[in-house]
Amino acid sequence: MKLILLGAPGAGKGTVAKLLTAIDGSVQISTGDILRGAVQAGTELGKKAEAFMKAGDLVPDDLIMGIMEQRLQEPDCEKGFLLDGFPRTIPQAEQLKELLERIGVKLDMAVNIDVAREVILDRLTTRRTCVNPDCQAIYNVKSNPPQKEGVCDKCGSDVVQREDETEEAISNRLATYNEKTAPLIGFYDNEGMLITVDATSSDAVINAIKANLD
Ligand code: ADP
Ligand code: ZN
User: Fold this and answer.
1) Ligand 1, from 15, 28, 58: best to mutate by most atoms within 8 Å of Cβ?
2) DSSP tag of 152
3) What is the CATH number of the domain that holds 140?
């Protein structure tokens, strides 16, 4: 399957993407994970992106499009891909459309994962992430803590609160979402590609996606 996952920070795009990869081997492509990996590795891309990310601001469109133009043409994308955190702005969506036409790829749909603001705030402040760039497992101190506090069950690395998950950075990320990313819902609705699902449980989201794929 070839999907775009839309939704506010904390809507559960990453969790849903991971569950979907298990269904048919489609790859999860998270621009946030790619960027955090680049920051930790200290690459040129990481150096350019770091300050924007810490503040909860978006990384410039041209950097993101450069990453995605390459990523979408890697062989593992042929089976399918789940775009998690991209596109994030109308210019990114327009350039993605042009890129996919150029490389002859057709998307199945854009899934808008809809969650109440209170739920999102609660999820983000309690979220913890594995620091290992190759793992990046996500935990929640209330609903899904690691077995040993602060240690990743999967790889043994530290599990921490992300720097952009302080209250100030979170409220900035939500404001940025409302201003820059929420308009994509209308964009994909106009393209006739949008489904909206209520994200109270990830199983419900998965089932709605499956039902729309057949
Ligand atoms: P979230 O948990 O907010 O969905 P992500 O892990 O997707 O966060 O992204 C973390 C940060 O990486 C964003 O706040 C932003 O700075 C940057 N980022 C990720 N994807 C994009 C994108 N498509 N365009 C611009 N910036 C991005
Ligand atoms: Zn880990």
Assistant:
1) 58
2) -
3) 3.40.50.300
Ligand 1 pocket, mutate which of 18, 162, 164 (most atoms under 8 A from CB): 164
Q: Which of 53, 86, 47, 91 is nearest to 67 (CA)?
A: 86
Nearest 10 degrees: CA dihedral of 6, 107, 89, 34? Answer: 80
pLDDT per residue as tens digits for the range 44-63: 999 999 999 988 889 999 99
Residue 61 lies inside a defined structural domain of this protein: no
51 part of a folded domain: no
pLDDT of residue 8: 92
Residue 63, in any domain of the structure: no
Q: What's the domain range around 196?
A: 2-26+79-213
- pLDDT value at 20 more than 90: yes
Total domains in the fold of the chain: 1
pLDDT digits (tens, 9 = 90+) for 159-214: 999 888 888 888 888 999 999 999 999 999 999 999 999 887 888 899 999 999 87
Instruction: Using the structure block, give the residue that is written with the tokens 């989201």.
Output: 205
The alpha carbon of 34 and the centre of ligand 1 are apart by a number of angstroms equal to 10
